[in-house]
């Protein structure tokens, strides 16, 4: 056990952690020349296309130091704020972390956030300055930022270039010298923590685990403590580039188990595996329950695919435990699911994975956050409102609360004014402003979560020319004045387009929604009235005129009454058609509501 090291890599997005993982695999000769490719651990098409890590990936490497062979278990983690739950799961299975900072860009918001996660779990931090081969690298200044942040000495900071491989042997030596070996009792009953799982269509569910106490043998009868189900460990093994079966996995090591589990809900991330013959008395304290930040409805385009969509979401949930969902119905869209996500990028990725991995064509409704409503009758008990259709009767309601976040934005001093304007326009309150260096500022705001759900991140990147980094964490609920804005087509409310909006913004957003829908809804044979309403009060209206055939074309000359007769006849037909006709809303209309500021 003393020769095992479990560590993860934490960094802001695009600071070079996937490239460094490649270099570590090269240096330990874990990959052959045939298997080599850039971002080897990012094995999802989406990850490679977007150049971001979405999933954490575990891999085992071997490294000789002073004639002794050491086992290194690397768990690569995502850097984007929407995947911080993946990071927290990886950290739970490690004893050390490599903190990577880009020597040209310096410390960013997500670096700080992930670092705090690691410090909460008492991980040993090894700071690394990456990309020191760049002409714009500034190792002295960025080194000072790291010293201020974690209180280490300048000698503790390693210099490396993941692109050229410079400094990689020193990193491997530092992992062995500084990261503590895992602690655990090899003779105690088996306790193994599940930190990830995924679905294999041929072999069922594969769960990744770290053995905390005892050991697990191939063919042994095991029990999952959260569900109480028992299985046989058909195959256990370790994750090299390919899975490598093993006879036994001992204390402190990381491996996988395949036991023919077909039902997705039988494997829970954070569960404890123990032996049936010699069970552990209690489960390992699992990690925190995930708290979704953004909710949206996902509906199949073909209503007959409802059960298929349920199966697809269950399999996705295995691989991404931060996704939550429950069944719901909509008058406009039929049967579907109310899903909880950690942010807008997370929602976009889930939608794309459903389409690519499971061939599901889905419609996603307008995202919103969850609110608390307090009624006059029962003021002590809050009603959760996660969907505009659950909005209670305003006359019986006392007040509402909406979730607020603490937003941390690190940007260049040149863009402070523009960033402040954006945040204050989104109902943010400036709470702190700190100069990290002479031209780098950290701004802290208290903001409503609903305001950052839509296009906040994109607009922040635009006004700062890509230089601002953004991170947030929830700080609880605060009282707010909210109204439900309904969109009606020919007097019929479209529940999928309803939104809960702050009263001050309701008129503006209602007007924008109507004009956007007028552009996107195709013209019909009859006139369509597009209205936005708060309760019974119409606050905005646009009219989409009907497509008309020129019925008077065959009349040339003659009395005007002949033409009028034909037009009256057409008018009566249009009126009847309007009563019977229903308006098809394209998927682009649901998504366009998110981009109202464009």
Describe the structure using short key phrases.
33% strand; 598 residues; 14 helices; 8-stranded antiparallel beta sheet; alpha+beta; Elongation Factor Tu (Ef-tu), domain 3
Describe what this molecule looks like in 3D.
With 598 residues, this protein is α+β, with helices and mostly antiparallel strands. The protein has five domains: 4-178, Rossmann fold (3-Layer(aba) Sandwich), CATH 3.40.50.300; 191-275, Translation factors (Elongation Factor Tu (Ef-tu), domain 3, Beta Barrel); 296-364, Elongation Factor G (Translational Gtpase), domain 3 (Alpha-Beta Plaits), CATH 3.30.70; 371-480, Alpha-Beta Plaits; 484-595, Alpha-Beta Plaits, CATH 3.30.70.2570. The protein is built from 14 helices and 31 strands. It has an eight-stranded antiparallel sheet. The protein has a six-stranded mixed sheet with strand order 2-3-1-4-5-6, sandwiched between helices. Strands 21, 22, 23, 24, 25 and 26 form a six-stranded antiparallel sheet that branches. The protein is globular and about 110 Å long. The two termini are 57 Å apart. The model has no long low-confidence stretch (mean pLDDT 78).
CA-based shape: globular
**How many helices in DSSP terms?**
14
Please count the beta strands (DSSP E, at least 2 residues each).
Answer: 31
Helix and strand content put the structural class at alpha+beta
Count of structural domains: 5
Distance between the termini: 57 Å
Instruction: Give the name of the CATH architecture of the largest domain.
Output: 3-Layer(aba) Sandwich
Task: Evaluate the radius of gyration.
Answer: 28 Å
The fraction of residues in strands falls at: 25-35%
- For this structure, what is the CATH class of the largest domain? Alpha Beta
Averaging pLDDT over every residue, what do you get? 78
Name the CATH homologous superfamily of the largest domain.
P-loop containing nucleotide triphosphate hydrolases
CATH topology of the largest domain: Rossmann fold
With strands numbered from the N-terminus, the spatial order across the biggest sheet is: 11-10-16-7-8-15-12-13
What summary fits the major beta sheet?
8 strands, antiparallel
Could you name the ranges where pLDDT drops below 50 across 5 or more consecutive residues? none
Could you estimate the helical fraction of the residues in percent? 25-40%
């Amino acid at each position: 056990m003393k020769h095992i090291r479990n560590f993860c890599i934490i960094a802001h997005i695009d600071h070079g952690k996937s490239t460094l993982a490649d270099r570590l695999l090269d240096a330990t000769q874990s990959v052959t020349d045939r298997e080599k490719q850039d971002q080897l651990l990012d094995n999802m098409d989406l990850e490679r296309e977007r150049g971001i890590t979405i999933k954490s990936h575990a891999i085992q490497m071997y490294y000789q130091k002073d004639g002794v062979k050491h086992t290194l278990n690397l768990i690569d983690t995502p850097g984007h704020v929407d995947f911080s739950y993946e990071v927290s799961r990886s950290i739970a299975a490690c004893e050390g972390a490599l903190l990577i900072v880009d020597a040209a860009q310096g410390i960013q918001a997500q670096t700080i956030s992930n670092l705090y996660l690691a410090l909460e779990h008492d991980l040993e931090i090894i700071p690394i300055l990456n990309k020191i081969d760049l002409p714009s690298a500034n190792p002295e200044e960025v080194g000072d930022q790291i010293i201020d942040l974690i209180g280490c000495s300048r000698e503790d900071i390693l210099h490396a270039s993941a692109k050229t491989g410079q400094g990689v042997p020193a990193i491997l030596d530092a992992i062995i010298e500084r990261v503590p070996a895992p602690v655990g009792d090899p003779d105690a009953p088996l306790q193994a923590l599940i930190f990830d799982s995924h679905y294999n269509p041929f072999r069922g569910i594969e769960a990744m685990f770290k053995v905390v106490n005892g050991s697990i043998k191939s063919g042994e009868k095991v029990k999952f403590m959260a569900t109480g189900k028992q299985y046989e460990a058909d195959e256990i093994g370790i994750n090299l580039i390919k899975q490598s079966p093993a006879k036994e996995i001992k204390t402190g090591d990381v491996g996988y188990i395949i036991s023919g589990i077909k039902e997705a809900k039988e494997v829970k991330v954070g569960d404890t595996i123990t032996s049936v013959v010699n069970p552990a008395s209690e489960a390992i304290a699992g990690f925190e329950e995930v708290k979704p930040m953004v909710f949206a409805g996902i509906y199949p385009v073909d209503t007959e695919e409802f059960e298929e969509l349920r199966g697809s979401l269950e399999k996705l949930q295995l691989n991404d435990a931060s996704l939550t969902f429950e069944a719901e119905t909509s008058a406009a869209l039929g049967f579907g699911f109310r899903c909880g996500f950690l942010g807008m990028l997370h929602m976009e990725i889930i939608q794309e994975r459903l389409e690519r991995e499971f061939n599901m064509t889905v419609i996603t409704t307008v995202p919103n956050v969850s609110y608390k409503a307090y009624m006059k009758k029962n003021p002590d008990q809050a009603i959760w409102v996660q969907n505009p259709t659950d909005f209670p009767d305003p006359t019986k309601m006392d007040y509402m609360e909406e979730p607020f976040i603490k937003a941390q934005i690190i940007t260049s001093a040149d863009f402070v004014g523009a960033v402040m304007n954006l945040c204050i326009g989104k109902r943010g309150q400036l709470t702190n402003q700190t100069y990290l260096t002479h031209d780098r500022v950290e701004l802290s705001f208290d903001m409503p979560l609903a305001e950052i759900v839509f296009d906040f991140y994109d607009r922040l990147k635009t006004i700062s020319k890509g230089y601002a980094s953004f991170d947030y964490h929830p700080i609880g609920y605060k009282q707010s004045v909210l109204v439900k804005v309904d969109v009606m087509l020919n007097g019929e409310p479209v529940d999928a387009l309803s939104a809960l909006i702050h009263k001050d913004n309701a008129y503006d957003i209602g007007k924008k929604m109507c004009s956007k829908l007028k552009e996107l809804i195709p013209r019909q044979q009859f006139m369509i009235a597009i209205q936005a309403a708060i309760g019974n009060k119409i606050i905005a209206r646009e009219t989409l005129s009907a497509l008309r055939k020129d019925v008077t074309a065959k009349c040339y000359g003659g009395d005007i009454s002949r033409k009028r007769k034909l037009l009256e006849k057409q008018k009566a037909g249009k009126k009847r058609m309007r009563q019977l006709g229903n308006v098809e809303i394209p998927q682009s209309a649901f998504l366009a509501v998110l981009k109202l500021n464009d």
